[in-house]
Amino acid sequence: MFQRSLYVCGAIVGSLAIASLFLNSLVSGKSINTEPRTTQTSTAAMPTINQKGMKTAVFAGGCFWGTEAVFEHLKGVSNVVSGYSGGSAATANYEAVGSGRTGHAESIRITYDPSQISYEKLLEIYFYVAHDPTQLNRQGPDIGTQYRSAIFFTNSEQQQIAAAYIERLNQTKSFSKPVVTQLVPLENFYAAEDYHQDFIVHNPNYPYVVAHDLPKLAQLRKQFPEIYKE
Predict the structure, then answer these.
(1) Residue 55 to residue 81: CA distance in whole angstroms
(2) Tens digits of per-residue pLDDT, 153-189?
(3) 8 A C-beta contact, residue 34 and residue 199
(4) Is this structure's pTM higher than 0.85?
(5) 6, 60, 63, 191: which is the annotated catalytic residue?
(6) Ordered domains of the chain (ranges, CATH)
(7) Known active-site residue 63
C-alpha cells in the first residue's frame, strides 16, 4: 500500500535538507519519509462559515494536496482547507488516517461565492479534473479507504444536485466505468495539520506533486480557462 508517510522525528529540518530528501524520494508513491511530525492534531471540527453569501462544499478524492490546489485556482473560491471527514475527532490526524481504518477520507472544504461559481460547476471540476471518480478506495498509486471518492453534502439541496449529477454521468456513460463516488451527509470536517495546507504552493517541485498534481492544474487551465485564476 502506498502512503504519503512523510515524517522526520522532532522539529522541521532546514529547507536544504528537505530538498535533498525530496530528490531522493520515489515519484510513483508517497512512502517518502520526509514530512515533519507535528504535535498538532485535528481534534476540533471546523466551524460553519458565516460570511454573508458564502457557501461551503466538502469533497474527497484522493490525496488532498492535489484536490486542494485544483479548487484554489478557481474564480469564486475564496478558501480551501485540507482535512479529514467521515471519522471521529480522536482519529482526525494524518498518522491515524493513513492506516485506512479510521473511517476518515482525506477531504477538502471549499468556501465559495455562489454568485460567481455554482455548486454544479464545482462538481464538474471535481469529477472531470480533480480526481477519477471510477476508482474504488484509491486514486492512482494511493490505495485505501482514506483515498475514496466521496461527496459530503451539507444540506438537502447539495444532496439532490450531487445525486442527479452522478446519475447523469452514469446514464450518459461519461466515463468508461461506473462512478463509485459516495454521497454522504457531512457530520464534521477536521482541518489537517498545518504542513498539509497549501502544500503545492510551498512544494511545487516535490516529486509526487510533479508527477500527479501539476498535470491536473495544467488540465484545469486548458479545459476551463474562463474560471481559472493564478
Answers:
(1) 14
(2) 999 999 999 999 999 999 999 999 999 999 999 999 9
(3) no
(4) no
(5) 63
(6) 15-223 (3.30.1060.10)
(7) yes
